[in-house]
Design brief:
Blueprint (H helix, E strand, L loop, with lengths): L2 E2 L2 E2 L6 H12 L4 E5 L2 E5 L2 H11 L5 H7 L2 E8 L4 E8 L2 E8 L1 H5 L2 E6 L2 E4 L2 H15 L3 E11 L8 H4 L3 E10 L4 H12 L6 E2 L4 H11 L8 E3 H5 L3 H7 L5 E3 L3 H13 L5 E4 L5 H6 L2 E5 L5 H6 L2 E3 L4 H41 L8 H11 L1 H8 L22 H28 L4 H22 L7 H4 L5 H19 L1 H7 L6 H11 L1 H16 L1
Parallel strand pairs: 8-11, 12-14, 13-14, 15-16, 16-17
Antiparallel strand pairs: 1-2, 3-4, 5-6, 6-7, 7-10, 8-9, 10-11
């Protein structure tokens, strides 16, 4: 339906509308395909929108192309901001041009109104530009359409020869609303300490309107055009870059400069792109991201990642997944090293005080293979922390094991060692001549302490009871299996001979569980104190 002031009109009564859309169809690289009653656009969505509008007044691209054969094309590029297709039309050569209205108008000398061609004066230009700005402020993408008639074949098919003395036809505006999930994704980025920057060839007002709608342009923000960027020195640009989330009417060189400046300032930069012109900036960025559907082969080749659904929200999901994987690697490493620290300290302290060894070599080997192994694997596939996107980005130079985490794991290992040695000494006090029994108690406490400790390693900020004991069922199964195997070593005669263990009484078993759980409760108390300070 075609409307003027919300009232339905008959398009056939508006020849300038028909001529504008006709020229837009003849200067078009997209295709509108009828797939069993469902129309699909093949090619650029903006060009597809023009084809769709034209099809509603029975302007068929196929029929128009048959009556107006293709002669030559001057492709769109980000410098000229326009494209031209020359066609034969009733024995003449007609150039159909579409592009950025403000730039296209500079090449126009006439305007067609109500079938009459007249000179394009300043009042016409200001009227067109005002309409362009009004539409752009509504987050619409606006294209200007013009044409030029050649009585004979042009001497040269280049932009300097063809794209001048044009006759302006009109403006075509379309809205390409962001997907619903994009606004939430950008909000997630902001919470995660990730800055969102829009770099576009669209009109400045269009870009700002979209940025405001998506929530990353506020009163303190600035928008910059490519021409304005050219006027800035590198030092000035570095001073202002933090306040500029929107760049409009930019060229590939501008994109490259933006990426290089941000990297020079120490920022980790991810750049998305789809066209050939985006390839240099995508390659220059720390993380180059290509669009899987609309992206060119060149851009995909130089990128580090390809988004198969062309959805910005997928990039944010990838960031969240990446943070989760890295977090799990740290849990895995932290758990194994803290447990190893506990084992080393048990043997070292016993040696320091001249005590008989609390553990046999085969018992240490068993703990490393069984008690440590299964829970560590389960921590490696832990569920992603729901608050992981609320953390600030880590430095790319930050090691998996930091100084702070190194001190923490040594202290945790020391507490595990204390529990094991405490049980060992209690057993020796009760039965001084039964070293095997004392070793069994120390062995069991050490193993169970590490099993309880695995739950500490799930989150160094939140309480286990807040994140949920069963939110990582693999860890529950792993600790249960490890406990059963550890119990088997104590109570099954065959294993008793191999590991030199003795069965424990129910009271001693309860003592083991109580002492072994102390590392868990200690960390829960420490987490409460840390949260209270924050």
């Amino acid at each position: 339906e075609f409307l003027i002031d919300k009232k339905s009109i008959d398009p056939s009564e508006y020849p300038e509308l028909i001529k504008t859309l006709r020229s837009g169809v003849l200067c078009n690289g997209a295709q509108l395909v009828n797939d069993n009653g469902t129309y699909k656009v093949i090619g650029d969505p903006t060009e597809g929108a023009i084809l769709t509008a034209a099809a509603k007044i029975d302007l068929s691209k196929k029929q128009l192309e048959e009556s107006c054969p293709f002669e030559e094309e001057i492709p769109f590029d980000s410098e000229r901001k326009k494209m031209t297709i020359i066609r034969r039309d009733n024995g003449k050569f007609v150039a159909h041009i579409k592009g950025a209205p403000d730039i296209l108008l500079a090449n126009c000398t006439k305007v067609e109104e109500n079938g009459t061609i007249k000179s394009l004066d300043d009042s016409n230009i200001q009227k067109i530009l005002k309409t362009n700005d009004d539409l752009a402020n509504q987050a619409m993408r606006v294209l200007g359409i013009a044409y030029r008639v050649f009585e004979t074949e042009p001497i040269a098919y280049d932009s300097e020869s063809i794209e001048k003395d044009l006759i302006f036809l009109g403006l075509v505006a379309m809205i390409d609303p962001p997907r619903e999930e994009v606004k939430e994704a950008i909000k997630k980025c902001k919470t995660a300490g990730i800055k969102t920057v829009m770099i576009t060839g669209d009109h400045k007002s269009t870009a700002v309107a979209i940025a405001k709608e998506l929530g990353f342009f506020d009163e303190e923000s600035e928008a910059l055009t490519g021409a304005e960027l050219d006027q800035m020195s590198d030092s000035d640009f570095e001073k202002h870059i933090g306040r500029i989330p929107v760049y409009a009417r930019v060229s590939p060189e501008h994109k490259l400069r933006i990426v290089r400046t941000r990297r020079r300032l120490g920022e980790v930069t991810a750049m998305t792109g789809d066209g050939v012109n985006d390839a240099p900036a995508v390659k220059e960025a720390d993380i180059g991201i290509a669009m899987g559907i609309t992206g060119t082969d060149v851009t995909k080749e130089v990128s580090d990642m390809v988004i198969t659904d062309d959805n910005f929200a997928s990039i944010v999901s990838a960031v969240e997944e990446g943070r989760g994987i890295y977090d799990n690697i740290r849990k895995f490493v932290h758990y194994l090293l803290s447990c190893n620290a506990g084992e080393i300290l048990v043997m070292f302290i016993a040696s320091l005080f001249g005590w008989a060894s609390p553990l046999l070599p085969i018992q240490i080997l068993w703990i490393n293979l069984v008690t440590d192994g299964f829970p560590a694997l389960a921590l490696g596939v832990d569920t992603v922390d729901p608050n992981i996107m609320k953390r600030s980005p880590r430095s790319p130079n930050e090691p998996v094991l930091t100084k702070k985490s190194g001190i923490t794991l040594v202290l945790q290992g020391a507490f595990i060692a204390f529990c094991s040695l405490f049980a060992y000494q209690i057993a020796l006090l009760r039965q001084p001549d039964n070293l095997s029994h004392a070793r069994t108690l120390a062995f069991f406490v050490l193993a169970c302490s590490q099993l309880f400790h695995s739950y500490n390693c799930r989150n160094d900020r939140e309480s286990l009871f807040k994140i949920g004991l069963f939110t990582n069922k693999k860890l529950v199964y792993a600790t249960l299996v490890s406990f059963i195997l550890q119990t088997a070593v104590i109570y099954i005669p065959f294993f008793q001979k191999v590991f030199k263990t003795e069965p424990l009484s129910p009271t001693e078993l309860g003592f083991v569980i109580l002492i072994s759980s102390l590392p868990l409760w200690a960390m829960e108390i420490i987490k409460v104190i840390i949260r209270a300070k924050k």
